[in-house]
Amino acid sequence: MSHVLAVAYHSVTPTWQNPLAIDPRTFELQLNKLAERGYVGVTLTKAATETSEHPRVAITFDDAFASVARAAVPILRNLGWPATVFAPTRAVETGGPMSWLGESAGTPASELQPMTWAELSDLSALGWEIGSHSRTHVLLSGLSDEELEAEVAGSRSDVIDHIGTCTSFSYPWGVVSPRAMEAVEAAGYIAASGLAGRFLRHNPLAVPRFAIASTDSDLRFRLKTSNTFGLMRTTPLWDLLRRMRHQPASTQT
Fold first, then answer.
1. Per-residue pLDDT of the chain (253 residues; tens, 9 = 90+)
2. How far apart, in whole angstroms, are the C-alpha atoms of residue 6 and residue 35?
3. Contact indicator for 86, 170 with CB cutoff of 8 Å
4. Selection from 97, 168, 84 nearest residue 126 by Cα
């Protein structure tokens, strides 16, 4: 099976100075570099469940920022690539702004607006995948069984009601747990993805993604999208690296 890469973006805008917000010129440059390396864009569900002779990349967007419809679509269309948008369905229904991100001083509310169901439907018509990011972007591990079902199965029903299909899920805050995976499988999803921690290989309900931030240098982007780095994430070495990264610096004597 060829290498499958999955990367997570959030907002694509030149006007919001935030790690979640990638300038469209940087976004286009990064995607063109992936294309030069032979990657072909696919949806997350296809990346998780289908095989190919060619390296594939799933470009995904958490939170369904409205800026993605404005700025990312033309860039992906030029490459002929689809993408996957994970929608927090309650925010889409109410129109935002997305409160869990925190409205820091100086951040226009327009930067925190989600797409509408009509915009998501338009993307679906272009061949994009519309998945769920739960209803309220809550951390799933602290929920009761009933609340967990509402966030996971309920959000899938929301997407199906407006889009017609929903096969993929993005774990809120990137956190994957066995209990959350069980709920995702029971709800009928066939692919799901997280951002945090070490991942087992070839589990379609726990596809690892690297989040791309505006603070990532070109070198860091190349590392995050390298096959070697991705494979390392499926080994105990990844746990060791994470512990070293978060370990307090020792006192010099």
1. 456 799 999 999 999 989 999 999 999 999 999 999 999 999 999 999 998 888 999 999 999 999 999 999 999 999 999 999 999 999 999 997 887 876 555 678 889 999 999 999 999 999 999 999 999 999 999 999 999 999 999 999 999 999 999 999 999 999 999 999 999 999 999 999 998 665 666 789 999 898 999 999 999 999 889 887 667 666 665 555 555 555 544 333 2
2. 14
3. yes
4. 84
Q: pTM score > 0.70 for this model?
A: yes
Quote the CA–CA distance of 190 and 89 in Å, as a whole number.
Answer: 19
20: burial class by Cβ within 10 Å (0-12, 13-18, 19+)? buried
Assign domain 4-246 to its CATH superfamily: Glycoside hydrolase/deacetylase (3.20.20.370)
The DSSP secondary structure of the chain, one letter per residue, reads ---EEEEEE-EE-SS--STTEE-HHHHHHHHHHHHHTT-EEE-HHHHHH---SS-EEEEEEETTBHHIIIIIHHHHHHHT---EEEE-HHHHHHT---GGG---TT--GGGGPBPPHHHHHHHHHTT-EEEE--SS---GGG--HHHHHHHHHHHHHHHHHHHS---EEE-GGG---HHHHHHHHHHT-SEEEE-SS---TT-TTSEE-EEP-TT--HHHHHHHT-HHHHHHTTSHHHHHHHHHHHSPPPPP-
